[in-house]
TrEMBL record:
<dbReference type="GO" id="GO:0006094">
    <property type="term" value="P:gluconeogenesis"/>
</dbReference>
<keyword id="KW-0312">Gluconeogenesis</keyword>
<protein>
    <recommendedName>
        <fullName>glucose-6-phosphate isomerase</fullName>
        <ecNumber>5.3.1.9</ecNumber>
    </recommendedName>
</protein>
<dbReference type="Pfam" id="PF06560">
    <property type="entry name" value="GPI"/>
</dbReference>
<feature type="domain" description="Glucose-6-phosphate isomerase prokaryote">
    <location>
        <begin position="32"/>
        <end position="178"/>
    </location>
</feature>
<dbReference type="GO" id="GO:0046872">
    <property type="term" value="F:metal ion binding"/>
</dbReference>
<dbReference type="GO" id="GO:0006096">
    <property type="term" value="P:glycolytic process"/>
</dbReference>
<dbReference type="GO" id="GO:0004347">
    <property type="term" value="F:glucose-6-phosphate isomerase activity"/>
</dbReference>
<comment type="pathway">
    <text>Carbohydrate degradation; glycolysis; D-glyceraldehyde 3-phosphate and glycerone phosphate from D-glucose: step 2/4.</text>
</comment>
<dbReference type="InterPro" id="IPR051610">
    <property type="entry name" value="GPI/OXD"/>
</dbReference>
<dbReference type="InterPro" id="IPR014710">
    <property type="entry name" value="RmlC-like_jellyroll"/>
</dbReference>
<keyword id="KW-0324">Glycolysis</keyword>
<dbReference type="InterPro" id="IPR011051">
    <property type="entry name" value="RmlC_Cupin_sf"/>
</dbReference>
<dbReference type="GO" id="GO:0005737">
    <property type="term" value="C:cytoplasm"/>
</dbReference>
<keyword id="KW-0479">Metal-binding</keyword>
<keyword id="KW-0413">Isomerase</keyword>
<comment type="similarity">
    <text>Belongs to the archaeal-type GPI family.</text>
</comment>
Amino acid sequence: MQSYAATPIAPFAIQFDAAAATLSPPGPTLERRMSDLEGLFADRDAWQKAVDGDNPVVYRVQSSPVPEIDRELPQSITTIEPGTTGGELWMTKGHQHPNYQGEIYLALHGTGGLLMFDGDRVEWVTMAPGTIGYIPPGWAHRSINIGDEPYSMLAVYPGGAGHDYNWVLEHGMGNRVYKTPNGFELRPYGGLS
Ligand code: PAN
Ligand code: ZN
């Protein structure tokens, strides 16, 4: 018998509905409104205007009941609404895993992007249903909706990974992602206006 024989929770089944983008039984759900994305869009005035307006929900995250603790393997589904702020496509806050753990994202519907930055190099993976984007340890990551409908993806990550959001505020994400007449374009990060 392994020394780690007793786990905090018993084995159980999770129903994954890709079409509905849900996990059942459900765990915690969170909503990120525009006001939660302070300091992230380059055009601060456009961001403030959206906050002072209807302060829209930019994305939601629905988790399974697996806890975010070491050695567990939690999952969550993120759905990003379509939209732009100052031309920049709507996105997640983005974070670094403080103790450098990997993660996978599986695109479910819509089209998105997985932007990764290790403080030096930038990588982009276009995400369409069926694509698994692999995030190696040490790469900060952010999801972007590059389409006209909601973009959903399933994330599976080590429960002890942690989420360092300040890392992105300090280091940026290497590139920003803007809507163009033909789709989208990556531009250098730059500061806030
Ligand atoms: C994902 C993200 C989720 C929301 O589950 O946490 O997409 O993005 P932010 O955490 O950047 O707001 C993940 O990468 N977990 O580790
Ligand atoms: Zn992560």
